[in-house]
Structures are given as C-alpha cells and as structure tokens.
Amino acid sequence: MQDQIEPLSVTLTDLRPSQWLQEIKSVGETYGFFEPLGKAHNAVFVEKGDTLLVSFETLPAIQALTENARPVAFDLAKDRDWSCLTVISNRDTWFRDGEVYGFFDQLTDDGFFEDFDKVVFYGAGPCGYAACAFSVACPGATVIALEPQATLDSRMTEWDDRFVEMRKLDFTSRYGFAPDMLEASDSAYVVYDPQERLDAMHAALFERTGVARFRARHFGGGMQAHFMQMGALSDLVHQAADGDLTPASFAQLYRKRRQHVPYIKKLIAVVEKAERPYAVEAVCAYLVNSFGAPRYRRKLNNLRAAREAEQTPKAAEA
C-alpha cells in the first residue's frame, strides 16, 4: 500500500477481495487496529477525532458503491475528522456471529467507547439492522439506519419472504431484536420507503420513544446508494450526529431527489403503474427539460401524440 497522508482517503480499487482485506488491514494496523472476527467478518479502526463513527458494511457493497472502493464510513468520518470503526462482512450476514458478539463485548469491557465524546452507529439494510442491534454495547450512542430490518425471526416476521434462507440464523439470543437494542441509545433515526410494504412493516416495529422515523418515498431498495448519488448522505449522518435531524431538515435534504435522475425514472414507473397518463407526461417532461434524456424525449413525444389524438375527436364532436 502506498503511504497515505490521510488514512481515510485510501484508494482500494481493482483489488481482489483477499488483496482488499490485506490493504485495509495495513490501514488499521498503521492508524488504529485491525481484527479478524471469524471467517466472515473483520473490523478496522482508524483513530482520529473525539467522535467515533461505528459502521457496518459488506465488502461487495463497498466495492460497488464507492469510486475508490473504500468503506462508505471512511468518507463520512473524513469530512468531520472523526475516528472510524468499520465492521465488514464478506456477504449479507446480518452480523449474526458469535465472534462479532464477542468483539463488542470486549469493546464494552475495555471501556473503548468511553474514550470518545460522541459515538454514532450507522448502517443500511442488513447493516442497518446491525447498527441498531449492536448500539446497545454503547449506551448513549446516536444511531442512524436506512431501511433496516427489525429481525428475521420467523415467529415475528414470517410475512417477510425476501430472506427465507437466512432464517436459520439465530435472531433470538444476544443483540437480537434490533428495536429493543435501541432502548439505551440517546437518539435513533430510521429512514424507510413507505411504498415498500415489507420495509415499512419492519420500520413500524421500530416505533417507540426515542426513535424518529423518516419516509423516503419511492426510493425502494438501495436507499444508501440513492442518498450517496444525491450528495445527501453526509449531511444526513452529520445532522443526526449533531441532533439536528428534524422532519424539516430531512425534507430539505430529500428535496435533492428532484435533481436525481434514478428517482425521477422510478417516479415515472410508479405513475405509469397507477395509470395516470397526465402525471406520466408531466414527470417525463420535467426529466427531458432538466436532463435531456433522449429516450424519454421519444416517450414524451408519444405521450403528447396520444393525448392530442384522444382530444381531437372530442373537439370535433363539440
């Protein structure tokens, strides 16, 4: 690995998983620590400021989401000169592993979290579940989770058929039911898409004192990627850390979706499915006028031609 003036700015592109882990291990051993947690998980800590960001991420998502193939949390922490502890899994495991439990037990026993003025837990999807679940190891932490699951225990969430093969994991023992693990947090923020029925049902299980829920309508899966592409993820996490994330400030961040092409395309599909041709034409016109989008220009022309053809007989009858 080349010498890095800023460890959180390390570039890890075009590496095989084993090479990537070797490089991230070097970062941790140089600037904090690196600890393997069994066969499926690793933890890397980079020590900097008095605020600690604890994130949960998967290696495939890291390599797919970030231009430099570094953990998403590295950029979130670098912006504020925070310290960063990232727990990385080699696939979606929901971090249900005794080695991970033991790691957080040891951090608590060693008073690791007590060395920081503020601790923020962050994750998305299965990693959002983990951020909520393991936050109990640090009472008084702030938690922000994007579209998290509450549990995959079939006795509670048998209605969620997306992860049937993962029901073999134990969600009933320690660090199990994520909403309960938030009781010791100072504040927690859950962001979800109410149009995604199963995600909304999980989000409903988080309804309790101290947990604020925010709706990101029509984002669907991959919410973290949407916020990153909109340039809003850093502000979202930083406002949560500062205790400044409110319905009004979230709405302001969410307005950036109006300049986010994937969102607009998703909205077109939604109103088409709802059979609202005038809304389809309006959204399509916005996309074309704002971003060009040649394919959607042809679609817009077809929509307008169909509307004019529908109106012409009515005008003749009049």
What does this protein look like?
The chain has 318 residues and is an alpha/beta fold. It has 2 domains: 253 residues, Rossmann fold; 56 residues, no CATH class. It has an 8-stranded mixed beta sheet with strand order 1-2-4-3-5-6-7-8, sandwiched between helices. Strand 7, helix 8 and strand 8 form a beta-alpha-beta unit. Helix 12 runs antiparallel to helix 13.
List the helices and strands and how they pair.
Elements lengths: L16 H15 E6 L3 E6 L4 E8 H7 L6 H7 L4 E7 L8 H12 L8 E7 L1 H9 L7 E5 L7 H4 L20 H4 L5 E6 L4 H9 L5 E5 L7 H7 L3 H10 L4 H8 L6 H13 L3 H15 L2 H24 L1
Parallel strand pairs: 3-4, 3-5, 5-6, 6-7, 7-8
Antiparallel strand pairs: 1-2, 2-4
Helix pairs in contact: 12-13, 13-14
Approximate strand percentage: 15-25%
Number of domains: 2
Computed over alpha carbons, the radius of gyration is 22 Å
CATH architecture annotation name of the largest domain: 3-Layer(aba) Sandwich
C-alpha termini separation: 77 Å
- Distinct helical segment count: 14
Order of strands, main sheet, comes to: 1-2-4-3-5-6-7-8
**Oligomeric grouping of the chains:** single chain
Number of strands: 8
Write down the CATH topology of the largest domain: Rossmann fold
Query: What's the overall average pLDDT, rounded?
Result: 93
The low-pLDDT segments are: none
The dominant shape is globular
Order of helices and strands: HEEEHHEHEHEHHEHEHHHHHH
The helix/strand class is alpha/beta
Major sheet summary line: 8 strands, mixed
Helix fraction bin:
40-55%
CATH class label of the largest domain: Alpha Beta
